[in-house]
Structure formats: structure tokens, C-alpha cells
Design goal:
mainly alpha; globular; 0% strand
Length: 202
Amino acid sequence: MTWEVLSIIGTIAFAVSGAIVAMEEEYDILGVYILGIVTAFGGGAIRNLLIGVPVSALWEQGMLFQIAMLSITAVFLFPNNLIKHWRRWGNFFDAVGLSAFAIQGALYASDMNHPLSAVIVAAVLTGSGGGIIRDLLAGRKPLVLKHEIYAVWAVICGFAIGLKIVNSPVELYVLFVLTTTLRVLSFLYKWRLPNRSLRAHI
């Protein structure tokens, strides 16, 4: 049940996030649906390839595809004055999707008895892969490649699940809320990882 709930939450959050980005970039209705679907399922597809799950497993998620399509349709049909307010919530939906999918990806790899390194990679790819593809298709610099703290929260989820620190459904939901909160705080207060620029020296 925890797995299914997190999958639904992540799918809705990333589908909405992708649709909002597409509309910000003034894509047509087809572009909105494509970007929403790619954002919702791109990370899981990359994860499956790397941890040995058949790509065909993606097409077995019929209910999630329907949920994603309904979410994108709802966002597309919202009045413009509401969409303007929703743009402010883009980072929040991104945080929710990151947390839900990072935990789901880590659980996936852990259930397949993969080592800790694979669990962490699965968490990062599932949590941020769809967002990376979305940003690239929208012509934006991917959040995960900036010095802004983003993928670090997925790494923490991978560690917590891979080391069996978090096991029960209640603990997983607490991890979800904590990860989402940390991600929201990181962009509200502009927490940054160290970076080094070479522009001034060229």
C-alpha cells in the first residue's frame, strides 16, 4: 500500500510539474501532455534500465498513466488566473515528486536485494530523472546539476532505506514528509552546495 500511495503521489506531482513547465514555455497541448508524461515516468524508466528491470514493465502501469493524463488535463483546463498562482507552487510539486519517487525507487532496488550503492542510484534516478528530462526538453538548466540542493535529499532517502534505518510504512511516510520539507526549505532559504566558477579566471 505504501508503494502504491507513493507512486500515485509522485505521478500526480511530476505530471503537474511537467505540465506547468510546458505551459510556462508556451508549448501546445501535445507538448504539455508529452512533457507531463515524460516527467512522471522518465525517472522510473531510466532506473529500470540500470537495475535490470525490463523496459516493458513501464507499460504495465496503466492506472498510473491514466492518473497522469487526468492530472495533466485538469491543469491544462484550469483558468489562467489559477495557473498563475500554481506557478508559485511548481517547486512544491517538484519537491513532492522528488520525495515520493526517491523513496519508491529505493524500495524497488532494496526489494530486489541490490547493494546500498544501487539503492542510492535508484533513489536519485527515480527522484530526479524525470525532472532532468523535463528541464532538458524545456531548454532549461536541470535543477540537479545546479549548486542548489536537490539530489542530495534523494541520496539521503537511499541511505535510509538501503541501510534499513527506515522500514515500516509509518517510517516511510515520515521520511517522505521530512524529505519534502527539507527540499522546500532548501529552495525557500536558498541553501546551496559549494561550487567553483572558472568564469572570472578565463
